[in-house]
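Job type: complex structure
Entries:
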Amino acid sequence: MMKFTGKGVYGAIAVGKISVYERQGIRVKRIKIEDAEAEIQRFESAKAIALEQLGSIHEKALKEVGEANAQIFEIHMMMVDDEDYNDAIFGMIRTQNVNAEYAVAATAKNFSEMFSSMDDSYMQARAADVEDISNRIIACLTDGHSTNTLSDEKVIICADDLAPSETVSLDKEKILAFATAHGSSNSHTAILARNMNIPAIIGLGADFLNEIKNGTMAIADGFTGEFIIDPDEETLAAYQKKQKAETEKRMLLQELTGKENVTLDGTKINIFANIGSVDNIGAVLLNDAGGIGLFRSEFLYLEKTDYPTEEEQFRVYKKVLESMATKKVIIRTLDIGADKQADYFHLEKEENPALGLRAIRLCLERPEIFKTQLRALYRASVYGNLGIMFPMVTSVSELEEILALCDEVKNELDAEKLPYSNLELGVMIETPAAAIISDKLAPMVDFFSVGTNDLTQYTLACDRQNPHIERFCNTHHEAILRLIEMSAKNAHANGAWIGICGELAADTALTETFLRMGIDELSVSPSFVLKVRDAVRKIDLTRPEPVC
Ligand code: PEP
Ligand code: MG
């Protein structure tokens, strides 16, 4: 028995035999050619075949992993046609009189090295994409093809790394798990594995490659990242038990993936997910959330020992947006203070920190910190469907100040010729003041998102950190429900939409109440998405309203 530990990118367990992924090795030789234009013609013909193949893979991916994830193959098609890439190949054929295979391989190496050396993990992961498309073109030039045929038995695919097109070209029905020595959790391969609902572990290390043999039994634990080769009977039995329990749990809810969030009478609602880190995106996709309704950006600050730079933040926001493709992502600006403290902010000790300098108040007091975040957010906005929302707002004048800072940032970016999108701006309704003046706030923004955790704390005067007063902290209190209803009416009367992102959004005892209020979106922990969908699908709003 031998154990390796990597990074689980999709939480599930697989027990089965290893199948080592073999790549058809194509040796590319440098050959001197006489007729450069004829060689370019050969390249163009191979390119056309590669584009046709990618078109079919894209079709397959659309059916198996959905539009958002199939997009990578559209990007591959664009890369094949990319002007810089093509010019580099033409240039090499013409100036060095080399064969097309060699020009493609050399250009792929240059581009891949360039991507790998970039200080951006997303761009680094693109190195694998350029190698993938180039290998395909070379295979087309040499009549080779890179299909890996699998036996009828389901297997655990083990490889050094897998390109996105290799991942999606494999017959999903015959794969128990993916395990690779290399790879990044941000690679599209990892994203695809997650979306194919196949346990996957990456980064098992080079030694792993020396130990894998076709037909050997193995266990892949996508939860812990453990990969066990040739397990003893006791380990095998323990994992089979764990696997059975997980499967039973998942199957019950998985039946709801891909289904609409629609009531029996046809009323629809968005169910989004809350996250605190990029690492949670796998769970968001796995649980089929329609978007991200709350990204608590302060965790980015809390895990650091100094202020995260604009560039650092930009990379994280961009990664989240790209991973979610066209789905909505709402990022909540810094909500630090009270229970969330970071030493380097040097905040003074307060008697009542929950009522003190936290969230938007801190941002307005220290606009340089706020503007750094806004700049990163606006710059990232071109990579997806972004909404920004502001926590702890209590007045119109605060919102005016916030919007003025947003305009300032946009003007700066215009002057620097940096692009940004026309994104949605929202206010969190988490103070009674915000709910009561929601008629004034709504015309100023695109959406509201109700933070019921704080709304409960501030409405009922119950410190959310104090376990001794829990019995006074009735989250179903009429005052809270009235404030939410009032905010919903005011949002809709002013053309804004309204969601709920506090913990109450996942309370299925209130799902019908929220639907009757006209709430447009519920944002919950990823693992609750299917539970709430289940509740929504059992509601009939034409029936008389139940008395709470
Ligand atoms: C809330 O207050 O309900 C909320 C979503 O924000 P947080 O829990 O992060 O304060
Ligand atoms: Mg809050």
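Summary: The chain has 20 helices and 16 strands. The mean pLDDT is 90.
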